[in-house]
């Protein structure tokens, strides 16, 4: 006669700091096979490739060279995805944006000075994904002034890498959050309840955060948010958002306050959220509805000046009452 012993599920939580922000990992398993040390080692590995704040990183090696470099696996994966999304968004997502990001005060060197039109025009000559070329694992630049910034995609990729790490250890029920970018798989144990994710909700002053506006339920996929309230600074009483339009050279200036994107993986969601912010509500909603790989939730200021929301048809299916 055999006896049946139910699986004893335990809930494990790992938190820490990385990539200039915080992270939180919750997973369900029989033992604590994934440790904070393993997570931090993986995040340090990612920083060595993708971080502008590590002088020795591969991205800085590319930015500091006049011609190009051989990429490591992490940088290669991110560049490939970035170029695909650049093409799909007609250039609104562009990793060569760094000269403009720096000029507007969101790079490593901080400044509150607003660049004038002539400076923007000059810098735009260095900004275009047409100025970089990927052949195999070698990324070249056509002008020495070209520099890349992966801030709009690297954290999503990092979340996916952490998800892969957990799954290598047969952990299939988890929530990973890094800097507000989230990936989910499985359910809460032992209840089997779906994971619940809250969406940040700005107040009438769009640069202030309020309690979560919407709750969605997931058992797989990723959710990322881009918002004008997330990173900004003031100059002469003007609030300047970090979301820069690579085509105009100027910060985002439309009715959208935030865009939350759902996709199968976090690199996809993260790559699209900034581009959708730049499109404005009508074009962004139309863009999302035409694609099967993403869904989106928009917070915007309507014609009367009040804050409103709108969701794509696929995103509505994720919302809970």
TrEMBL record:
GO terms for molecular function: transferase activity. Keywords: FAD, Flavoprotein, Magnesium, Metal-binding, Transferase. Its cofactor is Mg(2+). It holds the Pfam family ApbE. It catalyses: L-threonyl-[protein] + FAD = FMN-L-threonyl-[protein] + AMP + H(+). It is an enzyme of class 2 (transferase). Signal peptide: none annotated. It comes from the Bacteria. Its EC number is 2.7.1.180. Coiled coil: none annotated. InterPro entries: ApbE, ApbE-like_sf. Belongs to the ApbE family. This is FAD:protein FMN transferase.
